[in-house]
Amino acid sequence: MIRWTVLFLVLLTGVSLHAQNIALSGKVTNQSGKAIYGAIVSLKSKQIKDTTDASGAYSLIATVSGVSDMTIHSIKKSISMKNGIISVHLTKPAQLSVEFFNMNGKLLNKFLDNHVSAGAYQFKMKKLPSAQNMVLVRISIDRHTECFSYIPQINGCNVSAAEVTLPGQRLLSKIQAAVDSLQASALGYKTKIVPVSSFEEKIDIVLENEDVGECTPSKTVNMTVSGSGTHKVTVETNSDPGIKEGTIYRPTDLGGDEKYPIFAWGEGGCSQNGKSNSAAMAEIASHGYFVIADGTPDGSGSRSMNTSDPVSMGKPLLAYITWAIAQNKKPCSPYYQSLDTTKIATNGFSCGGLMAEGTAGDKRITTWGLTSSGLFAANQAFYKTVHTPVLMVEGGSSDMAYENGGRDYQNISALGIPIMWFSKNIGHGGDLSNKNGGDFTKINLAWLNWWLKGDEGATGKGVLVGSGCKYCTDNAWEVKSANFP
Predict the structure, then answer these.
(1) What is the CA radius of gyration of the chain?
(2) How far apart are CA 194 and CA 188, in angstroms?
């Protein structure tokens, strides 16, 4: 039986700066060989990452500075001796030396003193010329040192190892090379870690599908719509439980670099006709938004209105949002990786505005608004759930919702929430039914561009604030805001 003990010496560490060239490339595909667009590939230790293009290709090219030492903690774990076998694991190239001393501390032999590449190494003590008797073994990685005692015994008898004349480097067998690792992840796929043996190589990565369920194909609605934006618009329905009561207005082009924010809309009268405000919905979709309007095309009936419980009224719109987020994760979905699920807004006309107001407390919401709408009575408990900027567009004092919206504006602004108000005396719903949804939709769209796309120019914030705001200088419009810097 071989006995062994571990002795700890004073640990010294040293740091030396160096430059490292990184040139890693390859493709990320699924198990069927199809390229995965938008996968994130990162070199873990260097904090370098890239996103795959439409062909699934990635490229990590860089020259980075770093340190050539390891921490004491990691080095201690990288050196071990068990059953007469010494193992060394290097996560990066280093100076490795192995020395033998007798029990009086006299140097017997320096077995190895070379700069070696990253990898895992091991050697057997009994094959070494200096291990015929009890010895101390000192192993150094750069300036860090570990010491072991070795006693060759079998059944209580000393073992005399045969003399070995091969150079020490030949006795050191490299069993693994891993200087780093790549991590690849994509929506709908399991994250994969791939070892890297060199910082300059081609590595193709295959990802396995997550169990995200099946996809129900959407059906195109036979109607022609358009807007002033750069995108053609497709109108669809889907029979999935989370979306079967809604109508989708979306950019026709999917699968490119652009990611579309999600916008859910409640109809006037809480109607379940998803075509009620089709001009406004198509206008917003044409500017790069994934729009879901409540109700199916030419659907009948309406939802109940309970202003004392706005949260319940908001549930259908939140169900649409949940469905869209799930679709964005499913490789089988046509909407896969085409949506920006971190940018989500709701709005609605009249009773539909109350539905949007009911989503205000959901943490996924980036912003929300009301169009000719407002609660029938103050609800302080509800107001305290508001956590995002708010837009209110009303139809002036002739609008039946004007007073309700004004009360909501006062209560929400009193809580320090950023809020804007635009109102023109053109009645309930304003000009929503006009071409491209009229000025009401221009204001709603500019607000979405500002808060969901970071647009502070002439098609976003600039429409609503400053010298570019035509509504601000038009006496026909009442414009006010609170809690903006």
Answers:
(1) 34
(2) 18
